[in-house]
Amino acid sequence: MTDPYYGYSGGGGGSSITISPVLAGEENDQAMMRHGNDERKKRRLVSNRESARRSRVRKQRRLDELSSQVSELRDTNQRLLVELNHMITKHARIVKENSQLREEASHLQKKLSETVVMELEEAEVAAAAAGTLEEA
């Protein structure tokens, strides 16, 4: 039996292998193709690694930006909470002051009404006394 790639004939006590020049050229071409494929594979591997590295750098940059944004937002939130607490305190003080002023206004209004009533009564008494004096 003869192998198409090797000039091997099996039989008898001895064996001999011969490689024909045509077959050796084909093997050389195949080896060069494998070498070319290996080179392409290596280039693709290097390219993929570089792409992955760039992706990691972009991801890290984005993570750093988001971390910075979180820090800024926390600072802003803290500042706004302090401001809110000041406003709540100020509001409570103004509500208390407003209540006191309403009480004072009510008291003054009552006092004014009493004064007007007293003056009217005094005027009526004075008018009545003047009328009594004129009749006499």
Automatic annotation (TrEMBL):
Keyword Protease: no
Record keywords, A-Z: DNA-binding, Nucleus, Transcription, Transcription regulation
Domain of life of the source: Eukaryota
An example Gene Ontology CC term for this record: nucleus
Molecular function terms, GO-annotated: DNA binding; DNA-binding transcription factor activity
Domain BZIP: 38-101
InterPro entries to which the protein is assigned, alphabetical: AtbZIP8/43, bZIP, bZIP_sf
Major localization class: nucleus
Pfam families attached to this UniProt entry: bZIP_1
Protein's UniProt keywords contain Transcription: yes
Region of interest: Disordered: 1-65
Places the protein is found: Nucleus
Name assigned to this protein: BZIP domain-containing protein
Organism: Leersia perrieri
